[in-house]
Amino acid sequence: MTTSATIDYQTLEAQHSSGVYAKRPLTIVRGSGATLWDDAGRAYIDCAAGHGVANLGHCHPRVVAAIQAQAATLLTAQEALFNDQRALLLGELTAMLPAGLDRLFLCNSGAEAVEAALKFARLATGRTGVVATMRGFHGRTFGALSATWEAHYREPFQPLVPDFAHVPYNNLAALDAAITTDTAAVLLEVIQGEGGVRPGSAEFLRGAQALCRERGALLLIDEVQTGFGRTGRLFACEHHALEPDMLVLGKAIAGGVPMGAVALGQRVANITPGTHGSTFGGNPLACAAARATLAVIQAEGLVAQAAAKGAWLLDQLAALPTQRVREVRGRGLMVGIELRERAAPYLQRLQERGILALPAGPTVIRLLPPLVISTEQLANVVQTLNEVLQ
């Protein structure tokens, strides 16, 4: 029998995995808070957070306890049956959502939530058109991919779902021209994540909402990455007092357990039994984890922490004495550092110095640290960035 000390994890995984991921030569085996450890025992400050999943950090004790207790009680119960944890989560989450969103469809990921929202939009309006934006990213399944703009994601799988159009982000005139009597929905991120951490202007986002109301289209806001405190508000749409017809959620919703959701407003009609479904959606384990996650966000004041820490971080990064930085963008603890050259070498140097960060396009370093990251860890990140960018 082999022991963990005799296993080459990277060779074993590379031999049998699908090949769809470009893997870093790093094996992570443990996490706590904003720190990860590799199989050699080296610690890293995590500014990737599982692509924005670990808002509470890794292995938060309250989430771990909720998972352990629920795993010993009931793991699965299909939505054809009522369930205590699901009912409590639905009540608790809808109470925290923007006004008018009082129903939820539960699923297993952000991409699944986007797919559901697109179906519900076509069903509710009787129309087929969807307008999304350039640089937008919504997922890799066929409907979500059709809304995603970047060509290298799309081209190998064409033809995609018909009747999708893309307009420049923050260009209200182009959006005005694109919304027609055939448009079922406009799908937007409040801050584009994969597209380079690009915040939407109040004029553009509020204008999009007004156009949708005027022309009978539904406004779908994708908060898979920005939700649950990431930007210094519980949901990024609150920065602009938006009232979306659907709010698309995922990533951080359940503290690291796979989960997604679509919050539905009053204009989303015709949702009847059989129009959509999910075998694992709303399972008791994920619901228990999500309930614990929401409780921690409130009890530890993580939304306010993200706002304060993010403001400090943005100020510090904007003051870095280097000509390599073109622009620093973001809100809360969702930060993009656009360089005048490719970001990949600097991401590698950061990893060598014990900091894990993400790209957001070829020239942007993206920081998505857990909201529980300490001020000392953030200061370490700034100092290390200063050193590697010199």
Key descriptive features of the protein:
single chain, 390 residues, alpha/beta, Aspartate Aminotransferase, domain 1, Aspartate Aminotransferase, domain 2, seven-stranded mixed β-sheet, 13 helices
Major sheet strand order? 4-12-11-10-7-5-6
Gyration radius (Cα, Å) is: 21 Å
Task: Tell me the name of the CATH homologous superfamily of the largest domain.
Answer: Type I PLP-dependent aspartate aminotransferase-like (Major domain)
| Unreliable residue runs | none
Q: How many domains make up the coordinates?
A: 2
Strand content: 15-25%
CATH class division of the largest domain: Alpha Beta
What is the 3D form?
Answer: globular
Give the termini separation. 49 Å
Question: What is the overall pLDDT average?
Answer: 97
How many strands, what sense, and barrel or not for the largest sheet? 7 strands, mixed
Number of strands: 17
Number of helices: 13
List the secondary-structure elements in sequence, H or E.
HEEEHHHEHEHHEHEEEHEEEHHEEHEEEH
